[in-house]
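Below is how a single chain appears once it has passed through the pipeline. First comes the sequence as given, then the structure the pipeline wrote out for it. We keep one example in the README because the format questions we get most often are answered faster by looking than by reading.
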Amino acid sequence: MKNQEGYKDPVPGEAIRNIEEEEKQKTLEKKFGLCRGDWITQYKVINGKNMKKRTVIRYKIKIIRLYPHGYARVIKNNGKYDSFSIWEIIKRMTRGGAESV
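Resulting structure:
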């Protein structure tokens, strides 16, 4: 449904559902300490053969949505979507984002 100016105008039931969803997201943000829209930089260290060559790949992820069971929907800087455990994101943030493969 659109109003007379052409903007989307949700019916009352849909508007209430959207408000409830927004409230749930805000409580999850407080619970986990992460916010939607946050950009997190992570580093991935890849060791070459015989530990001679070491490559560091830096990539950013943006949190799109939080879920109550402990997962976050993210989008990577290359445009691909993925899901990570919130605890995994926090662990990577606290130890500097380094991960050895």
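Strands lie at 39-47, 54-66, 71-76, 81-85, 98-100.

See the next section for the split statistics.
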